[in-house]
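Hi support team,

I submitted a single chain yesterday and got back a structure, but I'm not sure I'm reading the token output correctly. Could someone confirm the output below corresponds to the sequence I sent? I've pasted both exactly as they appear in my results page.

Thanks,
R.
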Amino acid sequence: MIFGNRKNLQEYNYLEENIKKCFEYAQNNDLLTYEKGCHKIDGDNLFVNIVEYETTDKEDRFWEAHRNYLDLHFMLSGVEQIDLNFIENMEQKEFVEKDDFLPLEGEKNSHVVLNKDDFLICYPHDGHRTAVKVNESCKIKKAIFKIAISK
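Hi R., thanks for writing in. Yes, this is the structure output for that exact sequence:
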């Protein structure tokens, strides 16, 4: 996983080209004005899901990981905690291929707090639990870029 902020992108020149395309897309498009839902950038290879929701208690959220896509969480407004652990430290449930969804159970070993312009890149071994409130519940809007993993 990689945690950072848009203003420091020059420090991440080593990132894969498709990840760099996400930041370029965010720079050239006002994602805050996008409607909720899926927006294609490069077919199934690269797209962005715009989500809006209320953050809540961790007990009301679920753990997940992905095998076919990287997640790049890019905060547009609000504040959200994302709990983290490596999938090897967790109980892995049955993978749902059509949704690229690996359900997990376990506890966090770390977390990040995303504020406006912060990002978190989750790789296949990065279990994550999103939408956890920080102090109190709030409404967030976030872009989740889905980047196909070369096989």
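A quick pointer for reading it: The CA atoms of residues 40 and 55 lie 26 Å apart. Let us know if anything else looks off.

Best,
Support desk
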